[in-house]
Specification:
By secondary structure, the chain is of the alpha+beta class. The chain contains 14 helices and 10 strands. The chain has 2 domains: about 200 residues, no CATH class; about 210 residues, no CATH class. Helix 9 runs parallel beside helix 13.
Length: about 425
Amino acid sequence: MTDILREAVVGLWRNRTRTLLSMLGISWGIVAVVGLLAYGDGFDQALLRGFQGAFGDGVSVVFGGQTSMQAGGERAGRPVRMRLADAEAVGELPLVKAWSPEYIRGGTVTWGTKQADYAVRGVAPAYASMRAQPAAAGRFLDAEDVRLQRRVVFLGSEVARKLFGQVDPVGESVRIMGMSFDVIGVQKEKVQLSNYNRPDSESVFIPHTTAGQLWNTEFLTTFVYQAMDPGLGTRIDTQMREVLARRLRFDPADERAIDAWGYAESVAITAGIVTGLKIVLGFIGVLTLAIGGIGVMNIMFVSVTERTAEIGLRKALGARRGLILLQFLTEGLVTTVAGGSAGILLSFALVWLLSPRPFLSELLDDSTGAADIHLRLSFELVAISSAILMIVGLVSAFVPALRAARMDPIAALRQD
């Protein structure tokens, strides 16, 4: 095998200009495959970061709906309204890790002479981890804030920016719907692709006990819960519906009575689009690599034609068909693998040099760049590209090699 490999290298070096051009075609093809797949992977990751800015793993937000089936002696068409005790009953399920009620109202937030309308959310401390509320300054709500019904507030990043500008809001007082609240923290700027009742950055967060008292309401807008394991989502959803159906008198099979939305549902919407995009990008890359493979095949056909007499002489001296096949197959594979290896190295260099591609930053007014497409190379991506490269190399080299192996030695010698 070593002798065959050495002969292949010598033969390729003898026609190095032609070999180099073939390698360039393969290199460009593998750069196209790796680059386009890396772009598709980066696109997917940008969307995931956008959804993770709204929901943690295994998190669902439950909304009351309207019954579409008769149950519990009630007719269809009845609105389903949830209370704190209903959310607490779901939170007591063994497979639920954390939960939080949520009251939401639209209200005016004022500081000094500046004011604007934002979403006011009454929530529990667990809401911070479930709904991705990292603090840039200060802290989020705690259990004492809830127990003592304190008038404290955690500001969304956009609220803090518009009202306070460069001033540190922590320790200041703002008026929310005419009532004074002390600012205890400010949200860290984040990417959020999915929201309900305005983005979190345009919201302020107060203890749910304070919200329920100030607004004199017993009905929740929503409640949020998190599964012990994201893989248990379907099972917990069933249990949650059964608990609420029993308490609120609707049929558990009535999908319109309540609606649960979370990370899994958000990703599912875009999964088909992302998969389709990856397939299209991969097809374009493979097509480009196949064109390079055709170039290798044509060069190998030329090589077989030029070496017809050599092939005839080898066969006349007793060379087996398999040995001739292996010789030309090795030459084609060496050309393909060498060009492909150079292409993979070039792909790493390009991914490292290229800055993130603009994507969702302008749409979401994000200055962090987290919503842009960061080209991403992974072991799986390189493995897929290498597998495609070997297939193209085998196909490109096999047909000319088979032609050489099937040559009639007498006809080959006469042709010379």
